[in-house]
Amino acid sequence: MASNEAPKKIVLAYSGGLDTSVILPWLKERYPGVKLVAFAAELGQGSELKGVEEKAYKSGADEVVVMDLRKEFAEQYCWPMLRAHAIYEQDYLLGTSIARPLIAAKQVEVARQTGADAVGHGATGKGNDQVRFELTYMALAPDLKIIAPWKDTSFELRDRESAIEYADKHGIPIPVSKKKIYSQDRNLWHISHEGAEIEHPDAEPNWEACLTMTVPPEKAPDQSEIVEVGFERGNPVSVNGKAMAGHDLLAALNEIGGKHGVGVTVLAENRLVGMKSRGVYETPGGTILYEAHKALEQICVERDTAHFKQQLVLRYAELVYYGQWFHPLREAMQAFIDHTNATVTGTAKVKLFKGRAMQVGAKSPHTLYDPQLASFSMEGYDVTAARGFIDLFGLPMKVAQQAKRW
Amino acid sequence: MASNEAPKKIVLAYSGGLDTSVILPWLKERYPGVKLVAFAAELGQGSELKGVEEKAYKSGADEVVVMDLRKEFAEQYCWPMLRAHAIYEQDYLLGTSIARPLIAAKQVEVARQTGADAVGHGATGKGNDQVRFELTYMALAPDLKIIAPWKDTSFELRDRESAIEYADKHGIPIPVSKKKIYSQDRNLWHISHEGAEIEHPDAEPNWEACLTMTVPPEKAPDQSEIVEVGFERGNPVSVNGKAMAGHDLLAALNEIGGKHGVGVTVLAENRLVGMKSRGVYETPGGTILYEAHKALEQICVERDTAHFKQQLVLRYAELVYYGQWFHPLREAMQAFIDHTNATVTGTAKVKLFKGRAMQVGAKSPHTLYDPQLASFSMEGYDVTAARGFIDLFGLPMKVAQQAKRW
Amino acid sequence: MASNEAPKKIVLAYSGGLDTSVILPWLKERYPGVKLVAFAAELGQGSELKGVEEKAYKSGADEVVVMDLRKEFAEQYCWPMLRAHAIYEQDYLLGTSIARPLIAAKQVEVARQTGADAVGHGATGKGNDQVRFELTYMALAPDLKIIAPWKDTSFELRDRESAIEYADKHGIPIPVSKKKIYSQDRNLWHISHEGAEIEHPDAEPNWEACLTMTVPPEKAPDQSEIVEVGFERGNPVSVNGKAMAGHDLLAALNEIGGKHGVGVTVLAENRLVGMKSRGVYETPGGTILYEAHKALEQICVERDTAHFKQQLVLRYAELVYYGQWFHPLREAMQAFIDHTNATVTGTAKVKLFKGRAMQVGAKSPHTLYDPQLASFSMEGYDVTAARGFIDLFGLPMKVAQQAKRW
Amino acid sequence: MASNEAPKKIVLAYSGGLDTSVILPWLKERYPGVKLVAFAAELGQGSELKGVEEKAYKSGADEVVVMDLRKEFAEQYCWPMLRAHAIYEQDYLLGTSIARPLIAAKQVEVARQTGADAVGHGATGKGNDQVRFELTYMALAPDLKIIAPWKDTSFELRDRESAIEYADKHGIPIPVSKKKIYSQDRNLWHISHEGAEIEHPDAEPNWEACLTMTVPPEKAPDQSEIVEVGFERGNPVSVNGKAMAGHDLLAALNEIGGKHGVGVTVLAENRLVGMKSRGVYETPGGTILYEAHKALEQICVERDTAHFKQQLVLRYAELVYYGQWFHPLREAMQAFIDHTNATVTGTAKVKLFKGRAMQVGAKSPHTLYDPQLASFSMEGYDVTAARGFIDLFGLPMKVAQQAKRW
């Protein structure tokens, strides 16, 4: 169990943005003498990580660790979730949820390597991310202290203005980005947007302002495009016949999908911490992959197995959204899921056009689709079989209906 | 229990098409002296019912009953299913499944009124529809004989050529329609297409050839359109502010949705009778309604209720697909669903563009969305609450992870 | 939202025991000038309530409200849960869980009647009961302050010794009961025991010391006894043919069951607040009712309905255990459950002997049990029906197994 | 696909009883020239198999194969089901269901070895067993013909009298057993009884007449007995500290349990083929194992994992009951289950007395039970943690209740 003493050395999840930059000097003031390790994870968030090392040192970090986690992220986190076909509340492909446990697990690793006694993050006290970070810390390293400035009542940098002023005062380089309208989180799998007009559930989001990885459908090409994804055991391995490592494959699909404006959703979702909130998500590559995976599962997975998997995965998606990646239930479910996906090998085609990704075909050496059975031809089919099936299948309902009437 | 004697009077589900037309004289030959009641249901299948009465008599019917069931179909069958938000295998909105029990229930009614001792249908022995018809007959009238020529080993009219020849010989009017490429079923909720290239799971369907209620996305307007649907207790009641009866509302949305090419899916699905088959479905109005209903549920239904409903509805969709509309489990589930939808009142906006229908906003007097809670503002929020929550929420996982390591 | 000011008038859930008695003067010290309403609920907890009014005044209460809630408890709380057939973690019949929301709801009622601005309870910060009380307060009266001394860091009466000393000092009547070995909670439905050797999961409980409502099986009569329970729509209405109000019926069954030592379980359960704990439960009457209700459901409820109900009720039991009685999901589930129990009318016989209650028969006017179908006689049964059933039922599994082998 | 020609060589599931004995000469008459392989499986059904080989030859078998499957049955069929903790309809421990797929799978093996083109069984057309046999045949060897005389309309030996007469005529040795009152099925795991008064759901079974593996509770010892079962990864490995192979362990527990009359249930259950039927089951050893396994799981399996497993296993039990042991869904579920049972290692004590088996304690090196957390001691516990937990856990319900009132 973590003690209540002040931390001596903290590994902080560091993004290079204003929010986590001001936390560095603030922690130095809050815990005099504390050593700070800024940990930055390359998860494919775009240009954000440029110069992150220098910036961290300038902001007060004693050590800086940058890790390129893109391959691990794609293959060890996104792919298992894709095999599950996990979707939260019908429309959210879990892009932020799936990244947090990886970052937190690596922070723990860095804490062990650098002899730190604490880990910390800059997530607020009203959101899901604090839970995702901290559950992972607790599961993997219950002895480490957890430092979360936003939940510290003495933390006062709660709006952009205070943060900029504080940064100025402490000589922290402020990104010369245009004023951020939305609160965003980006990685190789997706980008999320919250805040501004998105917070009003009856307002259409300002797509022009927020869309980042994708174009608005109106600006997508007038010509549709079909992309073919190859799978082995439920894992994507190639695009249009070209084998690729996980992160490269995802990047390639993000580009194709982004061009056609696919993978954008807006939803009012239920946070783990109890309130409803609204977000816009762009998941271009992931959306193509889900559509392709669905097409392939349709021909490779047996009916009752597929139906039960759908049910099980609702809970799996909850676990991922709730930050419980390292939960024994998630792990046991993964064993179920991976068993069902052992034969999900083959290719699927997805058509992209003006904001929609739609599967249009799939084939597999393990297909369960039997054209002879599927067709209307009655050749070789016992026309009397259905009679007995219906009689026995319908018997309980028939008896129940009669009892009701008597 | 139905006896084994030959039927004396059969109420046949009659569509006016070639398939059911030839069944009339065939039944007369098969059961000499039998009386035939041709029952045709107006479910919004378009022009198919024109002249159906005359055609039936010419084909050998002794009585003809035509019923306009569009309002009942929309409000008593489609709406309960919409409140459930039932979807079979992720993509099928159950358009054929939901219509069969209504037709069969009305056949039973007609049998009672006309003193018939049998009901019959022209569905084949390999498909789902035979089950849907017969389960309903069995549930509502177990004493009636079930006549299903396609499952009669002496039935020989199993292809179009034999049927046409037989029709010619018996003076049955043959519809001068162009050669049917696909096997189709249409009603106010949808049209389905099976057969031809659709039977090949790796082939993209020939959209130009099959699409009927919708245009291909490429031919949809370059301008998007937003439609606003009003709901009361989960039931759609207005479009763009104009109150409408169920069937009119559905027809209006079919037109709008069809124009924008929305609501088209293709899937390899699992039939109840065991094989996989592939179909194309067009559900323009239904797709808009599902998207609008989802948006409204997101703000009106509490989290754990919404999550459990998602799970329950997977089973509900199975029941509908399996033809078990009059099943006590479907009825008990409906009680659950209707309870959850008691506050689903308000409006939702859906944007239509080039084949995609996407919710972009919703509002409700019963909204559970609290802008103050949803926002990033920490004003009035206890920043320390999350600490205790995470500690206790995460405790079981933390203890389990530690035990694993020992 | 409840304000942070000191409470002016508190309605305290008061049991008359030492624990809640010392809380009265303590609250007066903690909140100078506060008015205290001691609320005691008669739930059939035995002799505990004798003299409770006098004791409360002596302990410092300004007002005392005692309500006899036994009938409401039995019929409006226990019966709905019985219709659900809810069991937590296979063995706990939820006796404490089901009583808390009723007490809390009545406290809110009393608060409204007496103009109080706060409600309070004496449950500790490690258990489930605090959650059950407070969730109900929050749901029904979010404006009321919640006072929970055990979670107040300034509360120091955390063990029996401090409490006795404090009581002495404040002139509070101390119950001259023998030293309590176990922490117990009793009502008409059950009694629970925690603490002492029960806390050691590998130790057999000291039955002689803890059993209260039941005799140890070794001391039960050598003669078995059969009790017949009558039900209407899933609700018990008579015992051995004699109609009774809910609380009388429960008391009668407790006596019969207690005599035969039935309804005792010990289990290591999972608390909502995250840890595992172990308890002994005595639920003699409830156990008989569950067994009888099961027997009747077996003949009155259709198969797939019964199977789905079993699954749904696992979640229902969680909700009850977690204190979420007034949760919209519990209410929607109740609609489902009550629908399934509309035909659960009839009688069931339960045999009691040396610690075991076992159903031995049931009958109902709505029985779905058809002796002709159940028997081995093949008379009137189509021996060929099963052939078609098995062929189609088994088709997906057969195809899947073949695909695996290729 | 199996052809429609007459079978040339049939492997028949042969029990040595009258029912399957008469089938041998009957098959010879039905299919002139057919070769018959009588396959008898030793599953611990008691003395029934004595002289089975001789009897089979006398009855007309051309080849006889007897296999001792007791170890495989216990360890590869019963144990996986025990790890699942599968129970059908609350009370049936699936003793017949679990044996059929093993027998059928071995028949297929024997068919391959002996060059047979058909497999057959003597189960009737109204029961579950025909499905269990045939689904396994279909899954493992779809090319083999299935011979089921009871579903052959020309089979006339449908009652005991006809069978005895036929046996006499064909010189078949008739077992000199007393007249069988009940239809029974016995193996190492259980014995089932159907027929006679058991078919009347309101009649208490005649225990004296039917009980076989157990004594009636009234005749059990007046002294209780505690048995300790050791488990490794969810599999029982020892009794009272003595390591045993699966079938020996089961036999030992059957004896101990039988002596105390434990493991007897009677229930009206729902058959797969649609009707309700009623049976008495004796599962003495299995009941002890389930109770012990439950006790150990309670301390070794994390809460949410345990809760989800309970739900999943309802479907697993259906699959076993429905004869779908070789179903891909059962196999995927087993992967889930085995993952959850990886830490279910330790010992559990079960107390046996007059018909009841009751767990009274368990211990494990992987226990998640933390006495410090479980106790009422608040030492080292953050009394304020629960506040935040309740606030956020209860937020959705609170908001929903408020919305309802507006």
Automatic annotation (TrEMBL), chains A, B, C, D:
PANTHER family: ARGININOSUCCINATE SYNTHASE. The keyword Ligase applies. Its main location: cytoplasm. One of its GO terms (biological process) is urea cycle. It comes from the Bacteria. L-aspartate binds at T124, N128, D129. Keywords: Amino-acid biosynthesis, Arginine biosynthesis, ATP-binding, Cytoplasm, Ligase, Nucleotide-binding. It is found in: Cytoplasm. HAMAP family: Arg_succ_synth_type1. It catalyses: L-citrulline + L-aspartate + ATP = 2-(N(omega)-L-arginino)succinate + AMP + diphosphate + H(+). This is Argininosuccinate synthase. Belongs to the argininosuccinate synthase family. Type 1 subfamily. One of its GO terms (molecular function) is argininosuccinate synthase activity. Homotetramer. InterPro entries: Arginosuc_syn_C, Arginosuc_syn_N, Arginosuc_synth, Arginosuc_synth_CS, Arginosuc_synth_type_1_subfam, AS_cat/multimer_dom_body, Rossmann-like_a/b/a_fold. It holds the Pfam family Arginosuc_syn_C. The keyword Transmembrane does not apply. It comes from Humisphaera borealis. L-citrulline binds at Y92, S97, N128, R132, S183, S192, E269, Y281. PROSITE patterns: ARGININOSUCCIN_SYN_1, ARGININOSUCCIN_SYN_2. Pathway: Amino-acid biosynthesis; L-arginine biosynthesis; L-arginine from L-ornithine and carbamoyl phosphate: step 2/3. Residues 9-173 form the Arginosuccinate synthase-like N-terminal domain.
